[in-house]
Amino acid sequence: MKIESIKESAKKAIIELLNKQLQVEYAFIINYPRIIDKLIAVDKINDEQLNKDLERLGKDSTRHLGSVGQLIVQLGGEPMWQIEVIDRLVDVDNLLDHQLKKEKVALSLCQEAKRVAERNKVKVKVRDFLGRLIRVEDELPYDVLNASDVISTLERMIIDETHHIRLVHDSIATLNMFMNK
Fold first, then answer.
1. Distances in Å between the alpha carbon of 77 and those of 83, 121, 160?
2. Residue 141 and residue 75: Cα distance in Å, rounded?
3. For residues 69 and 79, what is the distance between their CA atoms, to the nearest angstrom?
4. Which of 93, 123, 157, 181 qualifies as a FRET site for 167, CA 20 to 30 Å off?
5. E-only strand ranges, the chain
6. Rounded to whole angstroms, how far apart are CA atoms 41 and 70?
7. What digits encode the pLDDT tens for the residues 37-50?
8. How do the residues of the chain divide into helix, strand and coil, expressed in percent and rounded to 5?
9. Out of 1.10.600.10, 1.20.1260.10, 3.30.950.10, 3.40.630.30, which CATH number does the structure's domain 2-179 have?
């Protein structure tokens, strides 16, 4: 049987885009609990919805990090990311503005990865072996990724990124409301 997979060169390009996404966006994950603590303890802003949004953003981002990393591994790559710890939390609104920009860059990288996947489909002759698609055309068999599965995963990531942008934007708006009182 034949399925649509993704060209090897495109897999490498997608891995590169997703690793850039990890570098841009996820350096900030560890700082969300610190931001919440600063808002409550130092700035005396204890808004339940703002705290929930920031907690959810941290948890969603951690889950999303796992999904991105898993796709990178499925494509044959290795996830590369780092954590950026901010020494001192001074202006939370500026930190969130900076993170909003990062989220938008991460969204565009994910959208580009999806475009690369869609433009680089290739028909591959496979056989099913215990639920795994194995390439038949080469001497050395290896697992084959179904292009539609990769594209579906990227679409879910785009939805997640869009949601993250909205959460950060709403958090900034709520924070600005408190700061202007």
1. 20, 18, 22
2. 15
3. 5
4. 181
5. 2-6, 121-129, 132-135
6. 37
7. 888 888 888 888 88
8. 65, 10, 25
9. 1.20.1260.10
Structure tokens at 149: 């599965």
Tokens of 86: 């901010």
Specify the amino acid at residue 139. E
What is the number of alpha carbons within 13 Å of residue 152 lying toward its C-beta? 6
Average pLDDT on 149-178 reads 93
Q: For the chain, give the percent of residues with pLDDT over 70.
A: 85
Place of tokens 């900034």: 172
Contacts 24+ apart (CB under 8 A), 81-85: 81/19, 81/22, 81/23, 81/26, 81/27, 82/23, 82/27, 83/26, 83/27, 83/29, 83/30, 84/27, 84/28, 84/31, 85/30, 85/31
